[in-house]
Amino acid sequence: MNVNLRNFIKKNQLQLIIISIFLIATIGLTYALFSDKTVRVGLDNVTVRMGPSLSYSKTGTVNSGKRVTVIKKQAGWLRVRYDDDHFGWIPSWLTNRKFNFKSATNLSEATIVLDPGHGGNDSGALGINQKHEEKTYTLKTAKLVQKSLEAKGARVIMTRSNDEYVGLAARASLSNKHKADAFISFHYDSAPENNSGSGDTTYYYHKKTSLKLAELVNSQLKAKVNLNNRGVQFGDFEVIRDNTQPSLLIEGGYINTAKDFKQISSYQYRKQVASAVTTALSQFLN
């Protein structure tokens, strides 16, 4: 580098830095403005937010059929440009698909993690007839809840979708990683002696983040499920203890009590649980 060039750079160092920043910003904006990656919004009144989660404030709305330009993806959300000069974040799962309902709600913007307890070599509790394993019924229940939530537009993540073993730490970690708006773990109780326990219980660990959710879910279970309701209780379970997100664990009745198992093993019961959870989550998120 010759002396004149070195002196020029030294004298104009601040101006050169400013020009470099301006050029970088201009290139980035130009790429965003002229990117041809667009998606179509699937619902009316989809909220545009300041950041990639429900916790960020609203900056606008976009309606069904609106094409928006994708600038960035993060945690299932899209940073988009719309109406030429407006920017914000919308849920990716509310784009490029058709829905049976018209307008978005907070539930349709939400990420819900469902956790069917046990699985694989961990059978969980056993029924009076020991071929009936807890892991089978937690998965059946969670899948019907998943279907109910997805019908309302929610993004649902399952800790397991088949008969496989998943560690407790991994279940909580999945919720934390995706910054879930709610985490619900499904289990079934067992008493030391057959037919000696009955009823469903809703457990929370973190009072600040999760007690309200537990109260709403339990209230709906009490109203819709034909089991003795044992209320909301504190529970020291790893999947909710190590969870930074609103989280609860449902013990949905006693698998080794005949009258409870009659409910647990029925499709009607699972529909009742799905309806209760979906209604409660909608209330919680609103």
TrEMBL record:
Q: Which residues form the SH3b domain?
A: 36-98
Q: Does the keyword Membrane apply?
A: yes
This protein's record includes keyword Translocase: no
Q: Which InterPro entries match?
A: MurNAc-LAA_cat, N-acetylmuramoyl_amidase_3, SH3-like_bac-type
The Gene Ontology CC terms held by the record are: outer membrane-bounded periplasmic space
* Gene3D superfamilies noted in UniProt: SH3 Domains, Zn-dependent exopeptidases
Molecular function per GO? N-acetylmuramoyl-L-alanine amidase activity
Transmembrane regions listed in the UniProt entry: 12-34
Q: Which GO terms describe its biological process?
A: cell wall organization; peptidoglycan catabolic process
Q: Which Pfam families match?
A: Amidase_3, SH3_3
For this UniProt record, the keywords arranged alphabetically read as follows:
Cell wall biogenesis/degradation, Hydrolase, Membrane, Transmembrane, Transmembrane helix
Spell out the PANTHER family in the cross-references. CELL WALL AMIDASE LYTH-RELATED (PTHR30404:SF7), N-ACETYLMURAMOYL-L-ALANINE AMIDASE (PTHR30404)
Can you say what this protein is called?
A: N-acetylmuramoyl-L-alanine amidase
Source organism of this protein record: Pediococcus ethanolidurans
Question: Taxonomic lineage of this organism?
Answer: Bacteria, Bacillati, Bacillota, Bacilli, Lactobacillales
